[in-house]
Every structure is written in C-alpha cells, then in structure tokens.
Write a structure and sequence with these properties.
Length: 426
C-alpha cells in the first residue's frame, strides 16, 4: 500500500525508518519530511497542516494510509476532514478525531475525562475570565508548589510550576488577562504538584482494543542532572528500569484500561497512538498528561525496539482488529541522545553545516534527523533539536556510551548534547 506520513521531526524519521521496512509498504511519502526521511521514502514539500494540499497529495499518489506524526493537524481536525470527504473516505487514518484529540488539545477536557473515569491524576480546578477572582482566592490558599497549565496547545511551554503565591498569581494574571499563550491560556488548569519520577507509556488503540508498545523515559531539561530550561526532549531510554511487572500491571489496570473504556463510553472516535505521561509516586502511577501522538524523542527508542511490522499493526488498528495482536520487543536497552544547536532552547542559528554524517554507516549508527535541511551537497542545521543518535546496549550506560561515541564523529558549530542521558540508572 501507499502511505503518507505527516511531520518533519526525529519522531517522523524514526516512524519513516520503521514503516519503510514493512513488506506491506509499496511507497512511502513524507510531508514535509527532512533529509533523513528522504532516505526512507519521497519527501513532499507541503505543510502538515495544509489539509487541501494533503488531500491533493493523497489523490495524486493513490494513498491508502495516512499516518499523522504531530498533534497540530489532529487537534485541527484532519481525521474529520478525511472522513467527511468522499475522495478520501477509503484512506485509513492513523490519528484520532478532533474531539478525541482534545485529550491533548485541552488540559481541562483531559482532566474531566480522568475525573469521570476514575483515572488517578493530580487534583485540579479550572478557571477563566468568568471565575478569575475565585481563581486568585484558590491560588492564595493552595499548597506550594502550584502547577498552572494553559488549557490549549502552547508548543510545550504552557506548564508553569510556581514556588510561591506571588509568582503563581502573577502568572495566572499573565495567562488569563494578558493572553500569555494567546487563546491557549484563556482557560487555565490549576493542579496539585506531584513529586516522583516520570515515564511515558505508548498505547496503540483501534477505539475498542489496544496494544502496549515499549515504554520510555525522556529527559526534558537542557542541562545535565536535569538542570536548566525545559526543551522538547534531549534524549530517551527504553525500557525504563523501574517499570517492572508490578508497576506495569498497576499502570495497565488503573490507567490504560480505564482510558480505553473511557474512550468507548464517551464515544470518542479514536484510532491511533495515545502517549500517556505518567509519574511514579511510591510505586503508584498517576497521569501527568495525555498526548494524541507518539513522543519525540521517545519514538526514536520505541520504534527500534519494536519487532512487529508497524504497518501490520497500523492496519489492524484501522480495521479494529487489534484484539489478540501480540507485541514483540527487542530485549536490549535503547538510548537516544539528541544533538542541539548552540543557544537552544533560547535563540539559536540555523543553516550551520553539519560534518561527519558521511563517515558513519547505517549498520553502526541509527541517526534520526530532527531539524536538518539539505543545502546543495551538504546538510545544515534547521532547528533547535538537530539530530538524535540511537544505540542498543546491554545496559542504559553502555547504550548511552555508544550513542555519545557516535556523536563525537558528528560536528557542527555550537553543537551540544547531554552526556548523562539515563544517568539515574547507570
Ligand atoms: P506538559 O507540557 O504537559 O508535558 O508538562 C510539562 C512537564 O511539567 C511535565 O513533564 C512534568 O514534568 C511537569 N508537570 C506537569 N504537571 C505536573 C504536576 N501536576 N506535578 C508536577 N509536575 C508536573
Ligand atoms: N518528549 C515529549 C513529547 O513528545 O511531548
């Protein structure tokens, strides 16, 4: 079959790499893709959110399956757009409906979903301009720290953890009164602070059944030892050492199954990935957030560990046949380490030449491009997160060492990467 994958990051390169290995895939197109995905299929230079252009591409290339990488097209309703169009209705869409994508697109929607279905998460209240004064009073008497979340999508920046009441009320005012995150912060969720260690679960569902993909843990802070500013993700590991059978059983019975049952009860139209951000508090799992897509850079360790044919899995999801499907996993540990531009997550330069990529063979290194661009014969930087290297090992430390050794061969001006990905488990 012909497949169109939307997106252009490291997640999409890892998905494209995996999809292109499937015996069921005749031709893979990636829109817009990057120089890495160009090795797995054909890049089409259209934005993932231009639905009319995506429609034309599907018709021109006789696409049978659409795989949506990032959240934005989903939250904007690409699944509904396909279902409503006669010329596109036959295409299998991997990604939830606009309403179901609210699990990521609206924190208030996700919190009320969890409340309704008794899924463990932090206690919360939601506020907007109409109950603003109640919000201020609530904040004043709230235990510290206080977590403020912009309701809508805010490019990963919408969560603010406040250490005192003055800061919390100032941020609350900025979000609601001054539209700090535009429309995304018209509504604010105020949440209890949870203290524990985070990890991510990846579920593929057909709306009725589900399979659990390998779990992962990402490292969001720019600095070693988890210090400094938040980023999109500086690296990831899989499996997660503390996610033992006992913990996973709790996560499945208290969170995964109630989530799938909740989707059914609420009649949400959901065929696709659910990324559940969990926190482990004294061996009990709580949900921090839902995302309606795979994680980045978690996908860069999850896909290499997945032994199943991904297109077989996605087809089973689209045909509501995931019941009974068995997931097979590579038992080794995978670690990915992200190389970023100097200055990231603040200001950084683009267009910086990348050296050393031609010195590495695919067998020795799984290099996934994130923010890169072809420039004549060479490849240059084109974003904050530039590329990530995934390696396998018999321990977290050993796999991380291999990725770091490969990154020593690659260079660009200002290049930085964390040397301690997975450090708690060395
Ligand atoms: P998000 O933008 O929803 O991915 O949240 C960003 C990060 O904020 C999460 O990965 C957590 O580290 C942190 N966070 C979110 N909610 C809470 C909470 N209730 N307690 C503690 N940390 C949180
Ligand atoms: N790595 C976190 C995310 O993809 O949201």
């Amino acid at each position: 079959m012909n497949i169109l994958l939307l997106g252009s990051g490291g997640r999409e390169h890892a998905l494209a790499w995996k999809i292109s290995q499937s015996k069921l895939c005749s031709q893979l197109f990636i829109a817009p893709g990057n120089p890495g995905t160009a090795h797995c299929g054909i890049n089409i230079d259209i934005p993932a959110t231009d639905f009319e252009a995506v429609r034309k591409c599907c018709i021109d290339h006789a696409i049978d399956m659409l795989v949506v990488g990032p959240e934005e097209p989903l939250v904007k309703g690409i699944q509904d757009f396909f279902k409503a169009d006669r010329a596109l209705q036959h295409i299998m869409v991997i990604g939830p409906s606009q309403q179901a994508a609210q699990l990521e697109g609206s924190k208030a929607f996700a919190k009320s979903f969890m409340d309704r279905h008794n899924i463990p998460t932090a206690a919360y209240r939601e506020f907007d301009i109409d109950n603003y004064e109640d919000g201020v009073a609530y904040l004043q008497s709230h235990a510290l720290p206080i977590v403020l979340k912009a309701d809508g999508l805010a490019a990963g920046k919408g969560v603010i953890i406040c250490q005192n009441h003055v800061e919390a009320i100032a941020e609350f005012e900025l979000m609601i009164q001054q539209s700090k995150f535009g429309d995304a912060s018209r509504k604010v969720v105020v949440e209890d602070f949870l203290s524990g260690i985070e990890m991510s679960l990846f579920v593929l569902t057909d709306g009725e059944n589900y399979v659990l993909l390998p779990e992962a843990k990402d490292y969001k802070r720019i600095g070693e030892g988890d210090k400094g500013l938040n980023t999109g993700g500086m690296g990831a590991i899989s499996p997660v050492p503390f996610a033992d059978e006992d913990f996973m059983q709790k996560a499945i019975s208290r969170i995964v199954i109630p989530t799938i049952e909740g989707i059914k009860k609420d009649r949400l139209d959901y065929c696709g990935f659910i990324f559940i951000g969990l926190i482990n508090i004294s061996d009990d799992p709580y949900v921090i957030e839902y995302n309606c897509r795979m994680g980045d850079p978690e996908t860069e360790v999850v896909m290499p560990r997945l032994k199943n044919d991904i297109v077989e899995l996605l087809t089973a999801a689209a045909q509501q046949k995931l019941g009974g499907v068995k997931i097979e996993t590579d038992g080794r540990t995978a670690v990915t380490v992200m190389a970023v531009s100097g200055g990231y997550p603040g200001e950084y330069e683009k267009g910086v030449p990348i050296d050393g990529l031609d010195l590495l063979q695919e067998e020795e290194a799984l290099i996934f491009h994130a923010g890169t661009k072809q420039d004549g014969e060479g490849i240059v930087t084109n974003g904050g997160r530039v590329l990530t290297v995934t390696s396998f090992g018999d321990s977290v430390k050993n796999a991380a060492e291999k990725s770091k050794a490969i990154l020593e061969v690659i260079s660009f001006d200002g290049m930085y990467f964390r040397k301690d990905i997975g450090y708690e488990f060395y």
